[in-house]
Structure formats: C-alpha cells, structure tokens
Write a structure and sequence with these properties.
Number of strands: 10
CATH class of the largest domain: Alpha Beta
Helix content: 40-55%
CATH architecture of the largest domain: 3-Layer(aba) Sandwich
Number of domains: 2
Order of helices and strands: EHEHHEEHEEHHHEHHEHHEHEH
Largest sheet: 4 strands, parallel
Shape: globular
Strand order of the largest sheet: 2-1-3-5
Bound molecules: iron/sulfur cluster
CATH topology of the largest domain: Rossmann fold
C-alpha cells in the first residue's frame, strides 16, 4: 500500500516519524514533489481565496499525489501539545480537501492532545488499524517512529535545516559542517512551512548563507529554552507554533552573537500578524536589526533579494559600529 504525504505544513516537523510509522506497518510512504510554480498554481486554483499561502500550497501538494498513492495522509490536527492549539486552518484542511475530485481516500484521523498528550495514541491506533489488526505491531511502529523523530530533532538542534537532517537520516550525506564562509549570524523566525520550503520562501535560507550569514531558526533551540523564553510574555500564546516563534525570537534577540532577525510571515495569517508585532517591538527595544518579509503568491524574487542585501548591509554596518538604529 502506498501512502501519500503532502510536502507541506507539518511535514517539516513530523515527516521522519510518519515515514517510519507507515514503513513499519508495511506501507510505502510517498511524498509529493518539491514545491514548484505548477504545484502552487494548482493550489491557487482549487483553494478558497481566504486561506493563507501555505494552505493554498498544501492543496497543490495533495493534488500532486493523486493517481500515485492508495491513501493520502492528512490528519485533522487540532493540538499537538497539552493546553495549546494549532491554527484552526489545520483543523479544517481535510474538509476543504475532501471536496476536490479524483483523490484517493484520506487518512484524516484527529490529533488532539489539548487535554492530555497521551490522546495522541488514539490517533496512532486509528491510523495503524488501516494496515493491521495487531495492536502490538501498531505499538512497535509507533515506538520506532518516535525514536526516528527524536533522531531528527537532535540533528536539527545541531544546526541542520530539515532537508539536511533528512539527508543525514537517509544516509545521503554525512553530518558535516556546511561549506559556507559566514561572517555573521542571523535568526530567521517563521512558521516551518514558510521558511523551509525553498519555493515559497524564495530560497531564503540558502540565499542568506550564500551572502555570508549563518542562519539560526527555532528548530535549533531545545524545547525547554523555547518555552522558558516564550513564558516571559505576560499572557501565554495558545498557538504551539506562535509560542515557538516568540521563544526563539526572544532567545536570539538576547544572544550577543546574533546580529539580526528576519521574521517571515504569510499574507492573510492572523497569528503571524500578532507574533510579528511582538517580535518587532522586542527587536526595537534591544536595538537589533529586524526585517519583516511577508510572503504571498505575488511576492517577487528580485524584491526579496534586494531587501535581504540591504538588511545584511545594515547588519554589517551596525556590527562594525557605523550606524545606530
Ligand atoms: S498559522 Fe498562519 S500561515 Fe499557518 S496555517 Fe494558520 S493562517 Fe496559515
């Protein structure tokens, strides 16, 4: 059996776990192609206008899997940790996708860990029961998938980006330092599906590295540090991803070796408008150079490159003591 996994949204967090889980149950995990203009065009054609860019893109990735797989794994994600929610657009995604024609059946189990983390196992059992009646086999598959996720998170915390960590896990490359000569460090803060997708981010991370900057993201920081930094807000954010972004931004803005922060937001994203505002205020208070990039389907590559170059010039001048901001 072939199970399709769209290369979108929480793919960047959980793909190694999902892959191992399905493989342990005897299925083949098939991911959609890399994002392209064509995949985005399909998403734009079929998604409602009101949703944000990454959700539109996820429609294109689902359609890319049509005809290639027996099922598409599209969990209805409500919450991935105790007392926190994921954006409501994740919750509605399976219903929005189901009205598209020509798709294989969806595996759309509900993942809701708001009340207790252990509720995840309900979703695991339900998904596993599509492939086997053996509870033991499902439990073992789950156990191995969690181990795979931990290995992946450890690689991210060593400073790798998701694609690099996956290449290491799949034995395609060795875990070696990257060959970029960098003279400064910048933090890139944004939802994982916006910053790690090379097509919609306009290859932001590779470009920054090629311009001489080491790039740090939220995934490079241990969970405990993210949470303790995010808890400094007078009122806690109730979105898991927003909390990670705030925790990472507060952490990097206080690190003397990090010279600037880039916040990447998606057009029409409510949570991003709020987290962006909080990060910008904190950056101003600490006099750290800050750049906001808002992405939508019309974002032009030339404009992004010019803004990145200008931002890095400012960061270098500031670092050299030439300007105050
Ligand atoms: S958090 Fe923002 S970018 Fe992410 S799915 Fe929700 S609206 Fe879209």
């Amino acid at each position: 059996m072939r199970v399709g996994i769209p290369r979108a949204l929480l793919y960047y967090y959980y793909y190694p776990m999902w892959k191992v889980f399905f493989e342990e149950l005897g299925a083949e995990a098939v991911i959609s192609s890399q994002s392209t203009k064509g995949i985005l065009a399909q998403g734009l054609k079929h998604a409602v206008d009101e949703v944000c860019l990454p959700v539109k893109l996820s429609f294109g990735h689902v359609l890319d899997l049509a005809g290639k797989v027996d099922y598409i794994f599209l969990p209805r994600i409500v919450s991935v940790e105790h007392r926190k929610y994921i954006c409501p657009k994740f919750l509605g995604l399976p219903d929005m996708i189901r009205r598209l024609e020509g798709l294989p059946p969806l595996l759309d189990v509900e993942v809701d860990m708001y009340r207790k983390n252990w509720d995840l196992y309900q979703a695991i059992k339900e998904t596993g029961s599509f492939f086997t009646n053996s509870r033991l086999k499902i439990w073992m598959a789950y156990h191995r998938s969690v181990q795979a996720l931990h290995r992946y998170c450890r690689l991210l915390q060593l400073g790798l980006m998701p694609a690099e960590a996956l290449a290491v896990l799949e034995n395609k490359v060795k875990n070696e330092p990257l060959p970029y000569p960098a003279d400064l460090n910048v933090a890139v803060i944004g939802h994982p599906y916006n910053i790690y997708d090379p097509y919609i981010s306009m290859d932001l991370i590779r470009r920054l590295r090629a311009m001489g900057a080491n790039v740090f993201t939220a995934e490079h920081i241990p969970e405990k540090i993210l949470k303790s930094n995010a808890s400094r807000l007078p009122k806690k954010l109730f979105w898991t991803l927003g909390q990670r972004m705030i925790g990472a931004a507060f952490h990097y803005l206080e690190r003397p070796d990090v010279s600037g922060v880039v916040h990447v937001a998606a057009f029409a994203c409510g949570p991003d408008s709020m987290t962006g505002e909080l990060i910008e205020r904190h950056a101003r208070a600490r006099r750290v150079p800050y750049l906001n990039l808002t992405l939508d389907e019309h974002t032009g590559e030339a404009g992004v490159v010019t803004r990145l170059e200008a931002f890095l010039d400012m960061v270098r001048w500031k670092k050299a003591g030439a300007v105050g901001i």
